[in-house]
Structures are given as C-alpha cells and as structure tokens.
C-alpha cells in the first residue's frame, strides 16, 4: 500500500482510497457512468468488475458511456449482467452485439468526436460518476491517464463525482505522453492551436476538482491485448493497391513520398494495410489517428514513421511488451490526446489527412456501410470513420471483395445501411483493385467500381443489375425493387450469388 | 464607355476591355471554366451567354464549375446548347435536371465546401478560364465581387486565365461588403482566425495576377430574382414546431433567447421557417449561412437579426430593390465570404451553428434524402446541407409530411438515397411536429418519428412496417424486401398509399 500511495502525490487525497466494492456501491439505479477506455486500452477495470458482481444480486440499470470499446471482457460482462440501460458511443464485443441486436439494451452509435460535445452542451444526461484509469495523481492536481485518453477529460470535467482507478500495472513512464486540451463552449471558443501532428497544446494530465473526487481505487489488471489477425495475402494485395493509388498521387504531384498525415481505423485490415507500407518507398510518415495498432510501431521501428498522435494505443501481447518495456525509445515520437481532438473536423481538415477505414460493404455508387450486417444487425459502430472520412483530404475505404467463402459480395447494388455517403467517399479498395471516385459522376463511379473492385464471381451479376438500372435512367440509376436483392438472396438462400451463376 | 472605364481603377488594364463574343471565342473544346455565381446571384453572364450562342453553330464541350446554381437561365441555356461535359457542384434548373437525369451530360453533386479544396489540390481539372462578375477592379489590383463570392477566389487564384465581367447594374456600394480569405495548402495552413460571425479575416476583394487577365467585359444584366414561394399555413406550422423545439432548448438551459448562429438552406421552406421567427421571443440573432434570402432581411428590419454572414444574397425582385436601394442601412450588418469559409467544418463546429435544411424525404430512423427523387432522379444537389449538418451544433431537417396531394409521404421506411446519415441528423420537423433524435437509439427514434412527424394518412402504414420489422430484430429493424415498398408503389400505382388504406 505504501508503494501504491506514492502514486498519489497530493497526500490530502490519501484518505479517499477505498476498495472497488465500496466504490461500486455508490452507483445507483438510473445513473450515467463515464468510463475511461478506448479499444481495449486504458479502461477503468476494478469498479466496473465490482459493479458486474453487484448486478448478480441486485436489480439496477445504468447508462455506460465510454471512449470506445472496452477491454477485459467488460462490455461482455456488463451486457450479460443485464445492468445496462444505454451504451454509447461504440462497442466491439460479440455478446454485447447480440444483446444490442436482441434489443436487450439500447445502443447509440455515435461519431466519436461528438460525444464530448454532447455531454458538455447538456444534450446527453449528466455524468453521475466519471470512473477513469490513471497512472498517478500529480501533486498539482492532475490525473495522469494510462494507455488511452478517450473521453476521460470531458467525463472528469463534467461529472458530478469522480472515481480514479490507479493501475499499478502501468509504468509511471507514461507520464508526459499525454496532451489534454478541451475546447471552450461553442461560440466562445478559440481556434484549436494544433497545426502539426506533433504539436502539444494542453496539459500532461486531466485537471480536476478535488471536491468531486469521491474515491480512489488501486488495481493491477493489465490492458487486454488486441485481437488482430495477422496480415494475409489478400490484405497484402489491398495494401499494394492502396500504395499504387498513393504512387499515382505522387506522380501527379499532389503528394510527395512523405504523403500526408495518415489515419487508419481499428481492426485487422487497416492494420495490415499500414503494415504493408514497411517495404515501400514512402518515408518520413506521420500518423494522426484514433488508435495506434502494432503496425504503427513496426513502421516506427523501420524508421518509416517519425511521429504518431492518437487517443489510444492498442497492441498485441507481444507488441505491448516491446513498446511498454522500451517506452523511452518511443516517447519523443508519441502523443496521446482526447478523442475529441484526434477526431476533430477542424484538425482533420487543417492537416489534410489520408483516412483509411474498413467498410463492411460498399455499393456501385460508392456509398459505404460500416456498421450494420444486412442493414439491421449492429456490428461494432461507426467509430471515428465518419469523423475522418467527412473531413479528410482523401477518404479511403478498404474491404475484401467477398466474405463467407464467396457467399457474400462486399460490393452490392445498394448498401443496406449508409454510414458514409457517396459525397464523402474518395477511394474504395479491395484485393481486386482500387477505384478513385474523386470528381466522378455516379455513372462513371459505377463502371469503375464494377470493373476494378468486384470479385470475378459477382462481376456479371452486378453488371446485369447496373444494365437494368440504366434502362430506368436518372443521375443514379437503380432498380429499386431489386436494390436489396443481394441481401434478400443471402437471407433466403444463404448466398448472394444468383442461381444461374451458382449452377454455372 | 468613359463611365464604364471608371470601374477599372488600374488604367493599365483598360486595354484589356473586349466584347463578350470575343472573350467567348477564346474558350476551346475540352476546357474547364470556373464561373462566378451562387444561387442566382453574382453569376458571370455575358460570356456564358456568348458561349451559348457559339454553341449553336459549333460543336464543343466544356466543364462548368461554379459556386452553386446559376441565374439568368444560364444552367438551362448551357445545358440545352449541349456544350456541357461535366457540371459541378450544384444546379437547380428544370431543364438541366432533365438533361442530367437523361444522361445528356455529367453532374457531380458535391459538398459546397469541397470544390475549392479539390481544385487547389489538383484533384479536379485545372481551371482554364475563371470568368467572374465584378463591381469593379481596384487600383491596387483586386476584383470586387458582386452579390456572391462562391468559389470565385479559388477560381481566380488557380485558373490559367481570367476574364472579368464588370456588371454596371451593381452598385459600387457593394465594395467593402466582402471578406476574402483562402486557406493555405493542407498541412501548411494556420487556424482560420474567424471566431465570431462578424469577424473580418481577409481582403475586400479578390487579389489576382495581372498577367493572367485575358479580358475584361462590361455587362448590365441584373441578377435573377429568387423564385421562392411565399410562406403558407404548413410552413408556419413547421416554423412553430421548430420554435417549440428551440424553446425547449432554452428551457433546458442549453440555449438562450439569442440561440446560436443560424444557418438556413436555400428554398421556400427554410425561408418560411426563418420568416416565422419574426414574431417570436428570440432576439439578437446572428446568421452564419450560405445564402441570405428575403427572410434574413425581414428579420434584420424587425430588429431580430443583428448580423448576417453568407457567400451569396438571393432575393425576390421586391426585396432586391429594397436592399440594394438602401445598402447603407445594411452594410454594417453584412459580410459576404467565399463558400469555403461559410461552409467550413472548422468554423461551423467552432461557432456551434443551428443548421436548418430541407429534406426531400427522411426515414423512420432519421436518415435524410436531400437530392434524389425516388432514389434515382437528381433534384438539385446536396449543396451545403452536408457541410452544415455534419459539423453543426444542431442539425435540423424540415419538410412537409406529404407531397403530391398525399400520394407521397415524406417519411418512408428507408430513404431511397442517403445524403445525411442517422449519425448526422439531430431533429426532423414536419407540419405535424418535430422529433428530437439526439442521444436516441434507432428504435427510440422510429417510435418518435412515426408518432410526431408522419401525416395521419401514413401513420398506420409506417407503424405496420415497423411492427413487421421488429419481428426481424436487430439494432435497426427492417424488412429489406419491403424497405422501398413506398417508392415502388408510387412508381406502379401513382401513390405510396396502401390499397387497404386507400379504400378505407
């Protein structure tokens, strides 16, 4: 304990140390909790675990707001415990997904840059308890976050009560890595002074009102390692196509080999695509992203990336050991910010990001579905993909052209849910090729997408749809009664493939 | 002519004065033209007219890029003349619309804040000729724009050649009304220093390279008056519902009676809704919009609006006379900026706008179609609605609940084209009522929208759809094979109304 208390440098706070069970007991039915945590990194762990335990013997429900998805199976446990009323703004857990789709609890799928703004302006319910993981509390009254910042700054500034979880597993070397900046009220705010990826514009910790700190809990749970799948041949092909596109940009004089600051979405595909740049001619790269995955550190190690900014670091077990065991090697090239700043339209447009995100499916006109399987079942959520796609310099979406052994085509006549409209999607990439949609009218886009991106199994079928659509005319030709035929066929026959094609 | 030349204060340019026919003769097949003009205001007129004449005897095609829609029937004439290859980023003319939908020429429907960025970064073809209307050319080398700025600043800075049309119909009192600011290259730019609606951050005219000026043409064509329909009972009801929503915001302490800077889309409905605020308790209002229509000046006259910023002023004939005849009364309360600045995500988020735009249709989950009739036929284009909706503090969409005497319901199970996703739409308003969707999960949204916004004729039908969808489950329940049943029924039977309901 002696050792633990050293992490609370303001000794007047030592008396607030409590057990996780006691802290969890303060939470009442109907409350709203703001938990730290962003894609399995830096989540509050001990108090939520204790809350799950309480849920086994007691009936209550709370709203769970976070940065993004939680690690340590917390989303699974909270959801199973039946204690969630409303969850936002993102999740990525199979059990929670099922409970959302079975309407066992509510889920609001939000742009990740919006949550802080909506809390501050009073549109979302007031946060009753901010529960945030920390490395330490400084003598001058700041909470030093751990491996993510997420929405913690706003949770702490807006909550009625604060519980800090000091996680002894995290090295104190994390102090100094963060940059905390919160915009003032809308209409009264100044420009956000960040003009370069590496700029520091705020404080190294989260300032807080001592009177609001209700308790401090010690824990020693590690972050969950990421569950990314290693690159495969198809992701390497996608990376190659993406790099071909970027080479064309360089050739046209629109970019140099330094490209522009890169953003890459969470997940195996985006990770693999970034990984694919290791042996490329691109150099002196910068990353301005939401989450740093293994690939960014591989690119740093290879001397390809010279600086990376994000609101979370989510690594495989192996990479965790390497990075956190050698933090001194990376700390001059890293900054962790609030998700409101990493995903802020002002900064994204100013820096002119190249945004690479994963699509679930896209259609022949370039609309993208990132969230809903067959238009109805939630996968994970839009995350930051909309924040980035909408305001970036080049919005790129990647996906394998088929799934489920070819029974699903990722390119369809009409996406069954739209998360990114044709107006916001610049380039689509599959392992088949890429389509650069910028400046093209819908009919030009359709031809390019079918030609370049569709799997050979589905080319004829999409061509036939488009041919029939053309007989109907219009700026964006469709046969509305067949627009979802790929999806209804999947539901009825287990495949999107036409019978004619299946037999052939 | 003596009098005309006084408008060119740098006399070294006097020798460049030519007739419109001569200027039009310089334009070659395959060129790209950047024309001034935004929603019928400030368009280059004489040279495009001459080009249309040339098209009668000669075969050539050009790309026509503008601020937004053109007045003086120019979009109609250019389209009819068959001399357009590609048109962007917006139009609003019936003949051009037909030609777009018949695929007689291409149309790229762009966010209005994107065009300048795409030209500057070399993604769109280089502008061969910028043809911009002006009040005058100053002695220190600036073009003073007229009633709109649109994309003229970027057209002039990026074009290979410049033609200036000095329109003697416009008063020289317009000088000083404009504020021209162009961001530097992405990655090298500073924050845009605008923090208040009334801030001036640039020059009063468009700086230009004298060597690029190929000709100066004099004209005296007036701007086309706007074709807005006067407010009716239903638009007044919509305004009342919108004000009820705003009153709730004031009651909740999220806004004061001064609200937040207002943006209102082009068109009769948005105009009528703003007009409806005249007799309200809201006061000291500010407008940060794209286009100022009659209603903004009515609100100024009523002492309700103290400042208005836009990239264009589009008025009825009567209002034109009043405003331009008494410009001295308004000039301290007005500024005209480039559309890149009026629609910039950085500024929209910073100021925290309340954005009011018109929907063609919206669905039970809050997705909005602003552009495509029955998903295929282009109406006008997305305009700035996406720029505003995506980054505003409150994104509001308004539409009458039915059209075509009730054969069309503006609320449908699934919009036939998505311009604004469920993530970006905060409030929907019809004459039936409003639905505040912020912080709601899809199932909560569907119930509220059906209850509050749908016309009684269609309530049962939408409830039945939703009930059946619920049996399928999911975060966003749908019956995909019936998702477009309203639209296919309209195509087949001339009405979206179910037979059962029609008989009843």
UniProtKB/TrEMBL annotation, chains A, B:
The keyword Ribosomal protein does not apply. Coiled coil: none annotated. One of its GO terms (molecular function) is hydrolase activity. Keywords: Hydrolase. Residues 16-201 form the Acetyl-CoA hydrolase/transferase N-terminal domain. Residues 322-465 form the Acetyl-CoA hydrolase/transferase C-terminal domain. The keyword Hydrolase applies. InterPro entries: AcetylCoA_hyd_C, AcetylCoA_hyd_C_sf, ActCoA_hydro, ActCoA_hydro_N, NagB/RpiA_transferase-like, Succinate_CoA_transferase. PANTHER family: ACETYL-COA HYDROLASE (PTHR43609:SF1). NCBIfam families: YgfH_subfam. Belongs to the acetyl-CoA hydrolase/transferase family. This is Acetyl-CoA hydrolase/transferase family protein. It comes from Psychrobacillus mangrovi.
